[in-house]
Amino acid sequence: MRLRPYLLGLLALFLAGGTAFANDNPPIVRKGSGLPIPRFVSLKSDEVNVRAGPGPRYPVDWVFTRKTMPVEIVAEYENWRKVRDWQGTSGWVLQSLLTGKRGFVVASKDINVCRTPAASAEIVAKFESEVVGEIPARVIGAG
């Protein structure tokens, strides 16, 4: 059986990059804050400018208008952080406009949160689509 050259290329790309997606790999640490990248944070203010590049000379592409909105830091440059929101849009934000508090977004349809993982479990909360909230530290540490 003869594989077409583009199929061989795809197979090689898959095999070469396959280990990059393993869950047991440690996070990448970059110069800057020294913290792992990627990592999740939230917005500290109701108005956060998102720029095209890491610095005030770059134009503002848009403005986040939701305090506690969770974002993922995907890169760092000095005191600037490249963030990605829950819809996949990315841009650069000044580090002082971010907080280490963890948050959540209900990204799809409305959901119910149950006390236990059983079909008959009591519903303790209901969230509508695109609701943004903060996760209390005691819940994060509960492991």
Distance between the termini: 51 Å
Taken in chain order, the helices and strands follow as HEEEEEEEEEEEEEH
Oligomeric state as shown: single chain
Say what the CATH topology is.
Answer: SH3 type barrels
The CATH class assignment is Mainly Beta
Task: Tell me the overall shape.
Answer: elongated
How many distinct domains? Answer: 1
Strands of the largest sheet, in order across it? Answer: 8-7-6-3-9
Q: What percent strand?
A: 35-45%
Cα radius of gyration in angstroms? 20 Å
Number-wise, the strands total: 13
CATH-assigned homologous superfamily: SH3 Domains
| CATH architecture annotation name | Roll
Largest sheet: 5 strands, antiparallel
Mean pLDDT: 77
- Percent helix: 10-25%
Uncertain stretches: 1-30
Q: If helices are DSSP runs of H or I spanning 4 or more residues, what is the number of helices?
A: 2
Structural class: mainly beta
Set down the secondary structure blueprint.
Blueprint: H1 5-17, E1 28-29, E2 36-37, E3 39-43, E4 48-51, E5 60-64, E6 70-77, E7 80-84, E8 90-94, E9 98-99, E10 103-105, E11 111-114, E12 123-127, E13 132-134, H2 137-140
Antiparallel strand pairs: 1-2, 3-6, 3-9, 4-5, 6-7, 7-8, 10-13, 11-12
